[in-house]
Design goal:
Chains A, B: Keywords: GTP-binding, Nucleotide-binding. Chains A, B: InterPro entries: FeFe-hyd_GTPase_HydF (IPR023873), GTP-bd (IPR006073), HydF_dimer (IPR041606), HydF_tetramer (IPR040644), P-loop_NTPase (IPR027417), Small_GTP-bd (IPR005225). Two copies of one chain form a homodimer. With about 400 residues, chain A is of the alpha/beta class. Chain A folds into three domains: about 5-175, P-loop containing nucleotide triphosphate hydrolases (Rossmann fold, 3-Layer(aba) Sandwich), CATH 3.40.50.300; about 180-270, Rossmann fold (3-Layer(aba) Sandwich); about 285-405, Rossmann fold (3-Layer(aba) Sandwich), CATH 3.40.50.11410. Helices cover about 35% and strands about 20% of the residues of chain A. The first copy, chain A, has helices at about 20-30, 75-90, 105-115, 135-145, 160-170, 205-220, 230-235, 250-260, 270-275, 280-285, 315-325, 360-370, 380-385, 390-395, 400, and strands at about 10-15, 50-55, 60-65, 90-95, 120-125, 150, 190-195, 220-225, 245, 265, 295-300, 330-335, 350, 375-380. In chain A, the strands form three sheets. In chain A, strands 2-3-1-4-5-6 form a six-stranded mixed beta sheet, sandwiched between helices. In chain A, strands 8-7-9-10 form a four-stranded parallel beta sheet, sandwiched between helices. A four-stranded parallel beta sheet of chain A has the order 12-11-13-14, sandwiched between helices. In chain A, strand 4 (about 90-95), helix 3 and strand 5 form a beta-alpha-beta unit. Chain A is globular, with a radius of gyration of 24 Å. Residues about 1-5 and about 35-45 of chain A have low confidence and may be disordered. Strand 8 (about 220-225) of chain A pairs antiparallel with strand 8 of chain B, so a sheet runs across the interface.
Chain lengths: ~400, ~400
Amino acid sequence: MNSTPRGNRLHIAIFGRRNAGKSSLINALTNQDIAVVSNVPGTTTDPVYKAMEILPVGPVVMIDTAGIDDTGELGELRVRRSIEVLNKADMVLLVMDAGAGITEYEMDIAKRCQEKKLPVVAVLNKIDASPVTALQRQEAKERLGVEPVAVSALTREGISDLKIALVQAAPPSWDEQTIVGDLLNPGDVAVLVIPIDLAAPKGRLILPQVQTIRDILDHDAMAYMVKERELKECIRTLNKKPRMVITDSQAFLKADADTPPDVLLTSFSILFARYKGDLETLVAGAKSIEKLRPGDKVLIAEACSHHRMEDDIGTVKIPRWIRQIVGGDLDFHWSSGHRFPEDLAQYKLVVHCGSCMINRREMLSRIMQVQAAGVPIVNYGVCIAYVQGILRRALSPFPLIQEILDDED
Amino acid sequence: MNSTPRGNRLHIAIFGRRNAGKSSLINALTNQDIAVVSNVPGTTTDPVYKAMEILPVGPVVMIDTAGIDDTGELGELRVRRSIEVLNKADMVLLVMDAGAGITEYEMDIAKRCQEKKLPVVAVLNKIDASPVTALQRQEAKERLGVEPVAVSALTREGISDLKIALVQAAPPSWDEQTIVGDLLNPGDVAVLVIPIDLAAPKGRLILPQVQTIRDILDHDAMAYMVKERELKECIRTLNKKPRMVITDSQAFLKADADTPPDVLLTSFSILFARYKGDLETLVAGAKSIEKLRPGDKVLIAEACSHHRMEDDIGTVKIPRWIRQIVGGDLDFHWSSGHRFPEDLAQYKLVVHCGSCMINRREMLSRIMQVQAAGVPIVNYGVCIAYVQGILRRALSPFPLIQEILDDED
């Protein structure tokens, strides 16, 4: 994740008057307690670019405009600098002190964003000191054109809502997370292991396989596709080591046996957990399965209501595996479709489907909702890899996330 | 084509009483003038299996039941042999002399076929001697359950209609032509060259590419996919020669330059011309472009009415190329959707689309309709390969069809 090229990171410009609390809000979003060194106001009008990670939104660049706030006159220089920043931003975070009013400054930024079709998330900060009234919300909405999010950077109240608002307002291009291309160099060979079984659509490939091939080609690498039975022969035909072997989870053990130990090995499920959500959070969620006790409530959530098959993954297999690990029965609940149950905090774990029918944005919103309730979340793919004991090997392309499995906590 | 394993060939059992003209009908269907050696009636009750080619239906096995016609008594042996044949057939050709009536024999066969859900094509033969009346047709339909085709094996009248009826009645499994798997041995490497251009669907592959990969995997071979820029590097990574390189036509010249001369090279268009139609006929059709004269009528037929793009293939590019070869303007006509124009015989050439929206069966019916009018037919893919001078190389996996290009005629 840390190797995300800066060009792919979501660029969020943060605007606000001097006392709106921009820096403390950035700290709250990034979970960093270390204070960001404040620029001495007035000494520079250059915005500061800070690459950082907002979990689970992903890698971002915060464009901190602390130096170009409205303390000076509405000078030409300030306007020019602001426009410059707006040209470089993917979205704008407009921060206001909930205790202060909305001025021409904020309305000007909001208007410019509207003209440029830049998404804006408006924040009423410091609600610990000044609770937000319905009237204030209404006024902000009318003047800025967007519903504001009420937060306190100090108490962290509302920070989850703000992350969700960021994800939901992010521009369409932000959904374009790469599947595997960022892990490959041009000219690398990725071997894809695809078992042809009865469940595969006749004469076709399933969509994740197709998307992975395309992503590999888009990144100037090469995709070598085989059935699991031909993997050994495939590696034998190559006179250089493949960079990575990506297998269907079904064939993981066979792929593991036939992949040289120094070649990265992962599964489509792991790649898509990362592509569609936040792999780090989901791996941490998998680890929490060990801490479950008989009788704990576990929510199994599916994004769509598909036709249930015999030996269904969500209603039969996953409960069975979790029971085996816990050594007793649990209180499983199920939800499907768009809405989660109201009281998420009652669960000890949420197990979410692979989200093939929802996009990254929606899956991340769901992950954040669950996190906001203080509950760990895992998805089907990561859960299955965990209970089958293959998660560590399947995380070989992601050593930092692999370490989560070893962390004491 | 001649290497089609016998198991994949459509098995057609031909039933009929002794004088119905079964053997001459087989000769008419296969275009063979050499007489099929008749079995001496009564000497054997074993059916004779004859592998042959019915153009453009494809490779078939005719199960000739000459020895088990109804000349003997309705004996138990005859019934047993008939049932045996019905168990091995994919469909039944039931031949009657148009001048003779429909007897219990034909009705029995038709009824058994119905019970087994075997498709039946009923033929009223010898219409040169006994023209068929509307009443006879009606009677045949009522007694046998199918509309009969009236033919004369002698004059070849109705033989095209019979071929179309065969194609249309063939069982669903017959559509399952292989794309490339029959050209590969298990363990072979096929390299697929896929240019990523603006026309490619974002994050996906186009269906023919997906179907080709799947077909390769289904045949225990390996599919190595690269963009045209990486082809050279891809071949360098292999320590054995790929069996075949399959390229998008757009990248043919680059692929030709980077493929070792002793490796088979073809295009998706050529494979799909074979998969969706009859490559031999379409290549012969391409060759006939040379014989066109300015002013000749050419029909450009598309199976669907798609949105026409600028520089559209059917209305702009293909006419331009053909004009350049002919050295003058031609009288182009266009048709789209399900029906061809009535009078096909007026055209000197039919250029058909790649038939991505229709199946093999429908495309073959169309090819036969055009052939019945004595007109050559080519499809877009084969036509483009021809006018661009790459057809010979693209036919390298099909040496027998390649020879058509050299034939004097």
